[in-house]
């Protein structure tokens, strides 16, 4: 059950229509998970600084069970997420940061329990 959170200082009007849905489909493909399990949040217009500059930028947080737990996995994921984000947001790769967090099944609650028991 991946969680993908995109924060950007770009105003909502500069984001492409359907960005959350497109990011959901891309994350499902990149992480090898069904789109029905991917959760996406997009937050725009935030006060942000990346690399000391408040110029247009974005930060992506990707957390999931089992698919973001190694440098090798995340190197592959990073390249593909950068391709998606630079195309969708019109930002250079130097203005985007991606953070990967591995999760354990007991850290995600769903249907009144945790994923461990589902």
UniProtKB/TrEMBL annotation:
GO terms classed as biological process: melanin biosynthetic process
One function term, GO molecular function aspect: D-dopachrome decarboxylase activity
Annotated Gene3D superfamilies: Macrophage Migration Inhibitory Factor
Gene Ontology CC annotation, any one: cytoplasm
EC number(s) stated in the UniProt entry for this protein: 4.1.1.84
Keywords, in A-Z order: Acetylation, Cytoplasm, Lyase, Melanin biosynthesis
PROSITE patterns given in the database record: MIF
A Pfam family that the UniProt record links to this protein: MIF
Cellular localization per UniProt: Cytoplasm
Enzyme class: lyase
InterPro entries named among the record's database cross-references: Macrophage_inhib_fac, Macrophage_inhib_fac_CS, Tautomerase/MIF_sf
Record-linked PANTHER family: D-DOPACHROME DECARBOXYLASE
Family of the protein in this entry: Belongs to the MIF family.
Subunit structure as annotated in this protein's UniProt entry: Homotrimer.
Record's function text: Tautomerization of D-dopachrome with decarboxylation to give 5,6-dihydroxyindole (DHI).
Record-given protein name: D-dopachrome decarboxylase
Natural source organism: Melopsittacus undulatus (Budgerigar)
């Amino acid at each position: 059950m991946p969680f993908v959170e995109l924060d950007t200082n770009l105003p909502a009007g500069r984001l492409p229509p359907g960005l959350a849905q497109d990011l959901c489909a891309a994350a499902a493909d990149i992480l090898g998970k069904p789109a029905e399990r991917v959760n996406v949040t997009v937050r725009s217009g935030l006060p942000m600084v990346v690399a000391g500059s408040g110029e247009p930028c974005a930060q992506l947080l990707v957390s999931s069970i089992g698919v973001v737990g190694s440098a090798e996995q995340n190197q592959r994921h990073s390249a593909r997420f950068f391709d998606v984000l630079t195309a969708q947001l019109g930002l250079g790769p130097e203005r985007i940061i991606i953070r990967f967090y591995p999760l354990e099944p007991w850290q995600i609650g769903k249907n009144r329990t945790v994923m461990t028991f589902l």
